[in-house]
Backbone:
């Protein structure tokens, strides 16, 4: 291992030995300071995001502001990690929550600030330290976040950005100083990292891909569903794990809803990401655009029909596409990470549910209906970490975020995230 990286891991371990003794409330004060720095410099940090991965600048600034909002949530959070008394016959009868140590974050490029901070903040507040392996195109974001922590007054070694590639992850995760890993990314990357963690008896948390359903039933508010549906598929150029990817439409409203949806969808025209009015820009890298084009062809070869063609404008830009897909098309077993949506038609609620669940993933779903009984039917039967009623999926610091099936395991956000990287230590005796 390169000496510089070795030194950073040792520094993270050394910082942990002191940080774990710092009172919860004092850690919260530092998080509040870091949140303030982020909020006050949202334009500056937003530009870093846009330059690195082409997110429209207004969305980049919103990402930084949302990160600050989440940090303030944790800065004000109840301390659920203080020792808990258990009613028993013993004099000592408690559960203590003990932080694990240095935690490795393996993070993606699609939300370069949000993904990192939503993992790092609860881990650090719980008393751990963090080392970050960011996506190769996002080293600027990683370094900027490290500077924010230092400027806020966090001790050195609490949060460190490691400028390393995928090859180094195995060695870092095997290092004695590292006690766990949180990965947001593809299923393949998640499987590899989890297997290394497992072999070394280290905790792992995985937030992987999705192919979320956006189910529109015949009693829905169709105008709102069409407008929100287009945004749910195309925000961040469709490069979102919780983007709506499959639009499952009740056949009774197909003729009314589809024209509305197409009209909204066509409002997303690629433009300059630095322009504040831009709603969609290019993808993060040309190879990712190549991958999406191949998936589009694969879908068509297997019987998908074009509703709006996916047209490539440049090496990274597309005019967003929409295809009609039937059950059995192998493309349904994959995640489409870009501006291409799929439309499916369901005869009734039971078929809509079956279509929604018939994928390897289980991240989030959105259901549009005014009927409470129908809402309940989907709430109870959808196989996903989140179900949204009459709204698109968007993460909120107050609520747990995570998936089931091939979408991963473990919880981010909410107070539950504070317990991901701690050991529940039982104290019993007289």
Residues:
């Amino acid at each position: 291992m390169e000496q510089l990286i070795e030194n950073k891991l040792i520094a993270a371990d050394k910082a942990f030995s002191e940080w774990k003794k710092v009172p919860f409330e004092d850690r919260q004060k530092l998080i509040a300071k870091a949140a303030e720095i982020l909020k006050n410099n949202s334009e500056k940090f937003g530009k870093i995001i846009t330059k690195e991965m082409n997110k429209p600048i207004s969305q980049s600034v919103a990402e930084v502001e949302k990160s600050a909002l989440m940090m303030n949530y944790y800065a004000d959070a109840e301390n659920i990690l203080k020792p808990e008394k258990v009613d028993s016959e013993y004099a000592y009868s408690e559960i203590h929550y003990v932080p694990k140590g240095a935690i490795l974050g393996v993070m993606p490029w699609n939300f370069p600030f949000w993904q990192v901070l939503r993992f790092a903040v609860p881990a650090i507040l719980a008393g751990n330290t963090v080392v970050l392996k960011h996506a190769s195109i996002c080293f600027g974001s990683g370094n900027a976040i490290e500077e924010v922590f230092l400027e806020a007054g966090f001790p050195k070694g609490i949060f460190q950005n490691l400028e390393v590639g995928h090859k180094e992850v195995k060695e870092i995760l095997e290092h004695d100083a590292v006690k766990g890993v949180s990965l947001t990314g593809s299923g393949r990357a998640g499987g590899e990292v989890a297997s290394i963690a497992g072999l070394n008896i280290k905790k792992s948390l995985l937030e992987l891909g999705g192919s979320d359903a956006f189910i529109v039933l015949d009693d829905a508010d169709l105008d709102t569903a069409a407008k929100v549906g287009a945004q749910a598929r195309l925000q961040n150029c469709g490069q979102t794990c919780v983007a709506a990817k499959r639009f499952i439409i009740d056949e009774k409203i197909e003729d009314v809803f589809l024209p509305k949806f197409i009209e909204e969808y066509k409002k997303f025209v690629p433009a300059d990401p630095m322009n504040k009015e831009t709603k969609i820009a290019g993808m993060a890298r040309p190879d990712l655009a190549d991958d999406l084009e191949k998936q589009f062809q694969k879908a068509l070869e297997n019987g998908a029909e074009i509703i709006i063609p996916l047209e490539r404008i440049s090496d990274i830009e597309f005019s967003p596409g929409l295809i009609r897909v039937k059950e059995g098309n192998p493309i349904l077993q994959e995640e489409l990470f870009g501006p291409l949506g799929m439309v499916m038609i369901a005869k009734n609620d039971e078929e809509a549910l079956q279509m929604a669940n018939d994928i390897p993933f289980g991240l989030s779903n959105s259901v549009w209906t005014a009927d409470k009984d129908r809402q309940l039917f989907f709430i109870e039967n959808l196989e996903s970490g989140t179900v949204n009623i009459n709204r698109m999926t968007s993460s909120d610091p107050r609520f747990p975020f995570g998936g089931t099936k091939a979408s991963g395991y473990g919880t981010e956000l909410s107070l539950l995230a504070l317990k991901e990287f701690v050991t529940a230590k039982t104290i019993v005796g007289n």
